[in-house]
Amino acid sequence: MDDTVFNITIQKDRRLNDTFELQLVQLTEIIKMQFVETVEEHLPFIPKLTFRNKTDTWEQCDISLDYILFLCLLPSVCIVLLLSCVERRKKIYSFEKRFPCLSGRFGIVVPLDFTSTLENRWSYAFAFGAVTPLMFNLLFGQINPFPYTLPRYLKVFVYLAAALEVGIVCKPFFICLSTPHQMLGGVLGLLYTLAWILVLLWNKFWCRGSIKYDKDSIEEFALQYNLLSEIPHLLSLGFLLFRFGFMIVKDVLIRLKKHSKQKEIKKHQYRYVQRLLRRPAEASVERSWFQRKIYKSDPYFKFPNRIVSTVVLCFLGVYLIMLLEQIMSTWCIKYIYRAWSNYVYVFEYNSTWTVRPNYITYTWYITSACAMLSSVIHISHVMVYYRKHIKSLWAGDKTFLPKSYQMRPAVCVAGLLKYPGYQIAFTMWGYLIVHMVMFTGGLMFVYVVILPIQEYGFLSWLLDLTSFLTNMFMVFILMRFQRIVIKMFFLQDKTSPQDKEKPLALNNRKAFHNFNYYLYFFNVIMGIGSCVLRLIKSAAVALLLLSRIERTIMPQGFRKLDSSHCTWVGMIITDHHHSNPVLVCFCHLLIKHTLQSVRVDEDVKPESPAKKRAHIRWVLAYTLLRNPEFILLRKRHWHANRKELQLAFIWAMSAHRGNKNTPGSIKSAQTLISALHGSSFASEVWWEDARKTCPP
């Protein structure tokens, strides 16, 4: 009877185990499918418009993001061409003189100046914020500009084409801000931004409001937090909308003479140079605790738009990554853990799995907040260290640079180009990696400290901790004991009572050699602990400094292996060469006082090509009259009539020695200019003016 009951119990346990294993496999497959669909097909902060369960309303929303970007290419290219048409080039080619209306047109439009400009810094930052979702699509490979799928070995060309497509689509936001034609740029930017806002609102309130997913699916759960992911996008587009409207109003006021047009004046650079020329104050100004410990503002320094835009994008990137992470983790905790709790009885003999399982949840959220705070501090340090390093270079201090660093111009300019993208990517990945490491450390703390205290009591845990710390304390005492014995017995006395330390000279050498011999074997054991401690410290410091590319994590002599830090150094050196206040002020003064008489204002309309050509000929003729020996040195002298050229040269030589303001001289000069350039109506006009100013 007992054997029968025992066999029935075993069969029931086997059936329960088989059922549990089957349901566990099904649960694992569900988790895998939901995770893959979330990462590859649905990201909460990206406006995806492709849905599975279609109705009549949903079929209207069945438009992919790739198709929307393709439709945006045409208006984007039209805006670029229109602004390029009104942009004039300084260099005019000869074939353009036949078409005066197109002369100098179709200049190169610059989206933004990453080197030295300080205008519209926050506008550019919000423009980057408006295109952040598209940048995240690029990061996760969600954009395919081709209508078909390329092989895997050509994946890099897909990313390159996708980046080019996103760059063209987003370019109107930037060129409308940077164009000198405020009215046209404001109108085009306003219309383009308004179109993007309408598409976003249509996607948010019309399409996504009609979506019906499964009740417990992650898509349905993510829709509850969809507005949180789109708030930065909407705010950035709204700021750009008001900015373009302000540009239009400002240009209208300028045209109505109610507002003066001001050019960019870098007053902070002039003030910086003036401070260098002044005698420093004898008494230092007392600073507050915030200025001494955290941050001190500098009125003589302004961050360029590259740093401001990069910092704003880093904050947005960390926010969106954290939001995506929290949505997925909350869904897992809410649904998957509920299903998992039905099978926890299998681990009832292992108290680690049954006592306070919510500690995992608490640890996850606490470490997420700590990782977020760490990322915010690191992003803030970017601005602090940028100002510190650039001001050190201005002062001639290059101690922070690697000793073997060679300043190659191509590498420095490449660092300027790569830095914004590197900093954003390092910040986001740094947050994820630091969070995972903190979460692992938090779980270790829970299972090593909190759970043992709950199961066995605080006194038992304290005894174990005391025994462990006793060994550590004894190791520390022995290491300290070596230093004390060396200082007391094996170093010679001070040569002077005023010395702080004993001289580095051995005493009691035989005793020292015996002391060294016996501790030789024990120090091998202590070296193992020191090695482990060094590994832990190095890993902790490297992980915490992973997102800070302004500080290298490589030891001395291996800094060149840290390519991200070399990017930072190249960017700093390039900025130093292009924005040094002393150099900039010197160039401004040189242009103002030396070239002011010949400098042409860009706002002044150029004269007609005929008048300009006649003026050049008049100046050339006058130069040749004053210096007749130049006639024979000109490369174009063989195009003129040989006899007329000889007569002109003979007259010029004689006129150079005698009186030149005679009717004969005027006639000979006309012969000279005709021989040199050929007669033209513009030349006749200039010679009529010459006759009036030089009467016979």
Automatic annotation (TrEMBL):
It is found in: Cell membrane. It is a multi-pass membrane protein. One of its GO terms (molecular function) is retinol transmembrane transporter activity. Keywords: Cell membrane, Membrane, Receptor, Transmembrane, Transmembrane helix, Transport. The chain crosses the membrane at residues 67-86, 124-144, 156-177, 184-202, 231-253, 303-324, 362-386, 428-450, 456-479, 517-546. It holds the Pfam family RBP_receptor. Its main location: membrane. This is Uncharacterized protein. GO terms for cellular component: plasma membrane. The keyword Repeat does not apply. InterPro entries: STRA6-like (IPR026612). One of its GO terms (biological process) is vitamin A import into cell.
